[in-house]
Every structure is written in C-alpha cells, then in structure tokens.
Amino acid sequence: MSGKNKDYRFTIANREALIGIALAVINFVWWYGFAYGLGSKSPENYHFVLGLPAWFFYSCVVGFILIVALVIVVVKFFFVDVPFEEEKDRGNES
Amino acid sequence: MNEAVIVPLIIFLILIFLVGFIASGSLRKSNHDFLEEYFLGGRELGGFILAMTMTATYGSASSFIGGPGVAYTEGLGWVLLAMSQVVTGYFVLMILGKKFAIMSRRYNAVTLTDYLKGRYQSKWVVLIAAVSIIIFLFSAMAAQWVGGARLIESLTGLPYHTALFIFALSVLVYVVIGGFRAVALTDAVQGVVMFGGTLILLVATIIAGGGIPDIIQGLAAENPNLITPFGAEGSLTPTYVSSFWILVGVAVVGLPQVTVRAMSYKSSKAMHRALIIGTIVVGFIMLNMHLIGVFARPILPGIEVGDKVMPLIALEVLPPWLAGVVLAAPMAAIMSTVDSLLLLVSSSVVKDVYVNYIKPDASPKRVKTLSLGVTSLLGVLVLLMALNPPDLLIWLNLFAFGGLEATFIWPVVMGLYWKKGNKYGALSSMAVGVISYIVIQQFFPTPFGMHSVVLPIALSFIAYVFVSLATKNMALEEYAAQQKIEKNL
C-alpha cells in the first residue's frame, strides 16, 4: 500500500486511461492523414489498392487493422490484472 | 409475402426467446439482490459476452439501416465518417475501465445515476440525471422501434402497424422476464448474427457487383465524388466529418447504455478480453456495413428511401433463405439496442426515482413487481409513440445521443479522475450541456462547420471546471463528510 487514501489500483487505472487517450489520438491522426492527405486530389488521379481508392484503403482498412494490432499489444503487455472487490482486511488496515 | 425469407427470421426469433427463457431461470435461482441481478446481471459478464453486448447495444438501427442508407447516397465519404466509431471499441473500456468498475462496486451502484449519486451526494444531480435518461432514451427507443417495424414491413409486406406490434411484443417478452442477463445473452447471440450477416452480405454484394474494381469504377463513372472523402455533393467537409469523432467516437463514454455495461464485468480479465474482441467486432461491422451501402449503388441504382437499401440489397444478391438469415442481423441490432434502452429507462424510473426518493423502504417483492410492471408499461408507451413514425430515423437517434453525451460525459469522466470536481460543477455541467445542445441543435445546426454536439461538450467542460473551482470551499466540508462515508463502506 502506497498511502492511506491512495489505492494502488487507481494508479494502474489512470495509466490505462492515458493509454486509451494516446491510442485514440494515434487512430485519429492516421485516419485523418491518409483520408485527406491522399483523398484531396481529383478522383482521376487516384491510385487504387485492391480496387479501393488508396486514401480509403490506407485510412479505413489498414487503419482499422493497425488499431486492432495496437489494442492487442497494449492489452497483452501493458494492462495489469486487478481485483475489483474491496479487500476484506481493508477495514483492519486503515 | 416471401416465405423463404420469413422462415429463417422466425427461427431466429424463437432462438432469441429460448435464450431469454434460459436467462430468466438464472434470475429466479440467483442469490444476488434482485435489482443488481435484474438490471446488471449480477456483475458477472465475461469478456466475450461483454464485448458482444456493447457492440450490439451500440450498433443500432442507425448503423444497420440508416447508416448504410446514407452511405448509399454519399459514397465512400460516409464510410470514412462511420469509421470514427472504431474508437468506441476500446476507448470506453479503457477510460472507464477499472476505476469505474471499482467505484461502482464501492457505491453499490446499479445504474449510472447510482454512480453519480455515490460520487456527488446530491439529490439534484440524481434527479437531473434520471430525467434526462428517461426523456432522451425514450426518444432514442422510439426511433429504434420505427426501424424494427420498417424492417419487418419491407420484408414481409405486412402493414406497418402489424409489423410494429410483432416487433414490440417479441422484445417486451424477453426483456420483462429475463432482465439484464437475458438482454446480455441475447445480445451475444445477436452480435454473432450481426458479425456473420455482415460478412456474408458483403461478399455476396461484391460478387454481384462483379468485383471491387468494377464497383468502384461504376461509382466513379456515375459521380466521381462518390469515391472521394467529400461526399456526393462535396458537402462533407473534413471539419464536419472529424467532429463525428466526438459524437460517435470518444463522447460515447457518457452514454448511460454504454457506461452501465462497464459496471457489469466480472473481472479485469473479462474486461481485457472485451477490449480486444470489442474493437475487432465494432470496426469490422462498421466498415463492412457501410461499404455494403456504397457497393449497393451500382447494383441497385435509384433507391429513394435510404432505409430500404439494406433489405433490398440482401434480397437482390442472396438466395431468399440466406437473405432471411442475414436480415436477422439488422433485426438483431435493433432488438438488442431496444432491449437495453428499455431496461435502462425502467431502471431509472424504479431505482433512481422510486427507490431513492419516493419509497426508500420498499419491500424487495414490491420493487420486483414494480420493475416488471414499469418495464412493460414503458414498452407499451414507446409502442404508442412509434405508431406515427417520424421520417429521419438516424437524426432522431443522433439527437438523443448528443443530448445524453452533453449531459453525462464530464460528471462521469471528471468524477472519476479529478478529485476537485464537486456536485455544483456536475450540476452546472449537466445543465449547460443539455440546454446548449438543444439551443444549438435548434438554431445553429452546424456551428463552425462542426456537428452540433461539439460546442455543448466543450461548454459543459468549462462549466464543470470553473464551477467546481469556484465552489471549492463550499464543497470542502461535504467532501470530507463523503470521504468518511466511503471509508465506512
């Protein structure tokens, strides 16, 4: 126990919330960058990947796969298991 | 009437009923408190069920009927917009995550309002929360019922009112008897159906269109704008599309039907698994459902009512019996959204208003009868509202979304992560959020080119922080008192 009021589980929860925000930012930048970076030119000049316009392929299809991969990595390596119930001897400790 | 389509749909309905009945068995046997069991499934959801019930609740009529319809009209730009929803798959669970689960157990919270009550200790916060849940979710529900009835109508050729009645009856029966666990379990079945149905329909549509390159060329030949990110008329600006990240992406954290699921998981392991499964399933369904809407255009040109795109394309590209199976997917999406909303509104009436303020000493038996009664009554009320359906399904639904998000996002999120937040901050944030959203929605529909939900969310944040800081001393004493209460729990 790190302190009287400080529950160690909250430190973990705070860090995981920050990871969530970071992932959302990465997701947005990737999505926006490819969509409007490649998609803003005239449709005659589009490149196509697997039949889809390149902007769409990278932004929506690859972007989705990337995010799934990131979520898996983050959850497997950075998320920590904690109990949700209050510890039984908590009352005796404090 | 197309029997080959209807038989699989009926089988699907029967399957859903069976799951509901099995779940109602566990309701009778359970040792848990009735309220916790009926409205939260005894907090025992595992990862897979949790992920599926979040997806199914979230993937509503708008993502299966309205959304693909708009995608049909606007082209790939709308699919891009819809992909802003991928973020909900992980964001909600990561933000609310462990802290919300721990706190709601500590407060013994069964509803979002319970959590707010535990955190802010204020009667007014509770009442405003309960009232906005009842009003906004009620209108969201009505939109869903219209969607469900329309779907049955276009499949079977039955008159709208008959279709509505069939739909209402099937939802009501299993919600009323089974409670949250029945809803979560049927959601899981429905989530699987949604996932599979999407996949089958996408593949069949691509084959019917002669492959992706042909479909895209066909779209470009009709109107090059259909394959740009800017929509058919070039009206989807980057600012507008990006602002949907707020509406259907991150601010979903404030939606009561989503937060209540973050109270229901069994363990942090279940939550981790739900994170991964949820992200995959949400993204997969959103991407492919909307793509189907776009791809349907060269195959079936000239559909005027967007809501009919999905049923029509399924009937066009699939053999009838398979179309029936696949069309169970939007049906599943609608039912699973409606059932959760129904349960939530009724929990708000029973738990948040009745047990909190009208009769705190109500006997368990009375609470039980009342829960079942209120749930049924609400169902009937929505049914009556849906008899005269409004046209634009998706917008009615989004109106409710925005209102709830503007109301709840900061009291929930800041309540978790900012100690200085107090009830005055929460109250003003809720008031500013709701009022500014309604005003902006009515009079300035796209301020600075953004969706109308963005400004209210910013304003309610400012209100929360400023008022919390300004009333710091006033709240300090009460805060100390609350800490004492928490310690004693």
UniProtKB/TrEMBL annotation, chain A:
This is YhdT family protein. Keywords: Membrane, Transmembrane, Transmembrane helix. The chain crosses the membrane at residues 12-35, 55-80. PANTHER family: INNER MEMBRANE PROTEIN (PTHR39174:SF1), INNER MEMBRANE PROTEIN-RELATED (PTHR39174). InterPro entries: DUF997 (IPR010398).
TrEMBL record, chain B:
The chain crosses the membrane at residues 6-24, 45-65, 77-96, 124-146, 158-180, 192-212, 244-263, 275-300, 320-346, 367-387, 393-417, 424-444, 450-470. CDD domains: SLC5sbd_PanF. Its main location: membrane. Gene3D superfamilies: Sodium/glucose cotransporter. It is a multi-pass membrane protein. It comes from the Bacteria. Keywords: Cell membrane, Membrane, Transmembrane, Transmembrane helix, Transport. It is found in: Membrane. Belongs to the sodium:solute symporter (SSF) (TC 2.A.21) family. This is Sodium/pantothenate symporter. It comes from Halobacillus naozhouensis. The gene is panF.
